[in-house]
Sequence to fold (300 residues):
Amino acid sequence: MGRRRKGGKGAHLRGVVVVDKPKGPTSHDVVSSLRKRLDTGRVGHAGTLDPMATGVLVVAVGEGTKLVPYLTAADKRYAATLSIGTATDSLDAEGDVTGEGPLLTATLDDVRAVAASMVGVIRQRVPKVSAVRVDGERLHAKARRGDDFEAPEREVELRSVSVLEVAPDRVRFELEASKGFYVRSFGRDLAERLGTVGHLSELRRLASGAFTVAEAVVPEAVAPEALLDPATAAAKVMPTVEVGAEAAADLRMGRRVEAGEVLEGPAALVHAGALVTIAEQREGGWQVLRGFTSEAGTGA
Fold:
């Protein structure tokens, strides 16, 4: 999430926009530029992209930032190129070279078989150059100091992987994975299983949950009218339930309201086109998780 700055002509804006992040800036840089562009302090993002990476960066504005925890939980889809023969400390082209290995002699079918064996729930060691915190400090800070440490492992899931091209010096692939999955780590591990080393030279996020690169706009094209209103954005990631005026008023006061159909997990409760609350069912009633103001739309 981005830092907040009060005031600004865009302080009334609320919603979500899918940005096609360019290569070079950090996710924080993109958020900062949009904060200035929209003249509002309440801007955050759902799922960091490395500076080298491009593609889908879901950005939330105003009350849309309340949706970020639900937007980040979605699976991600990527396209990447693994350069063979050179390892780097960051596991991508931005890092310093740390080792060399042989080029590939494996066939496309060979690489597909190895990649397919990695599908499923796995323990993945995160990159040393990453924003993961250990003992209150981000790993990239430890790496910059030259500290000797082992990065932690996390349980993640590789849903699917498709190897598109194999050459002696590269492997091109697409994959879909759970939250917290590092494509850089996958590239390192795939190269290792192929008997060599490698690093990512290209990485593009094609989708984050229901938000795809086909609907993304470049940062320079982001304007108030590009924002999806909170109700529309929430409907992309969770069930939507229409409630009446009386129930909406009670929910906005934080009161429990009797639930109708049985649903598991969070749901978006909507009245007259406006998102009232994110809630979940507990003991037959709706329990408010996050409340929203009564104005509908983006406020553009």
